Amino acid sequence: MKLADGLFLESCREVAKKYPSITYNEIIVDNCCMQLVAKPEQFDVMVTPNLYGNLVANTAAGIAGGTGVMPGGNVGADHAVFEQGASAGNVGKDKIVLENKANPVALLLSSAMMLRHLQFPSFADRLETAVKKVIAEGKCRTKDLGGTSTTQQVVDAVIAKLD
Predict the structure, then answer these.
(1) How far from 118 is each of 79, 93, 128, CA to CA, in Å?
(2) Which family, according to UniProt (predicted)?
(3) Partners of 81 in beta bridges
């Protein structure tokens, strides 16, 4: 890991030199997670290797309400993938999907990120607003958010809130 971490840091430092107007900082992952919990507003953008990114994303998901509400995107020069942004509590648990109990919020918010990436910001805004309204209303939530609604009921509620 020290070799891989060293190469990653070396690459980051080289890129950072090309963008002097952007503040570049380094932080050890365990301290980063602690700082994320204690003072999350100090962070704007984080660049991490995959393993550390998973640790940070799961910490952020815990702060935000769980993995079921955390959108994610992996954007490269030529391709992009949008998915649930933290280790999903329903991954590998087919029973949750079969019983219609999986939280669709992260996937819906990831879809909004994809729409924005594809230059459809108004559609992304509509979807995000509808999801936020459903969550804030509190009537339709899956078990992980303290409710009893099914996946389909949450999706239907979001569709009903689309402007």
Answers:
(1) 11, 31, 15
(2) Belongs to the isocitrate and isopropylmalate dehydrogenases family.
(3) 74
Q: How far apart are CA 114 and CA 75, in angstroms?
A: 10
Of 87, 114, 88, 4, nearest to 48 (Cα)?
A: 4
Question: pLDDT for 14-71, tens place per residue?
Answer: 999 999 999 999 999 999 999 999 999 999 989 998 889 889 988 998 888 888 888 9
Listed in order, strand segments (DSSP E) in 50-124 are 71-75, 80-84
Residues in Cβ contact with 144 at an 8 Å cutoff, skipping those fewer than 6 apart? 66, 67, 68, 89, 103
Could you give the CA distance from residue 46 to residue 124 in angstroms, rounded to a whole number?
A: 23
Separation CA 92–CA 75 (nearest Å): 25
Contact 112, 127 (CB under 8 A): yes
Q: Rounded to whole angstroms, how far apart are CA atoms 60 and 38?
A: 11
- Residue 144 tokens read as 């992980």
Compute the distance between CA of residue 144 and CA of residue 142 in angstroms, rounded to an integer. Answer: 6
The pLDDT, as a whole number, for residue 27 is 92
Dihedral, CA of residue 51, residue 55, residue 56 and residue 62, to nearest 10? 150
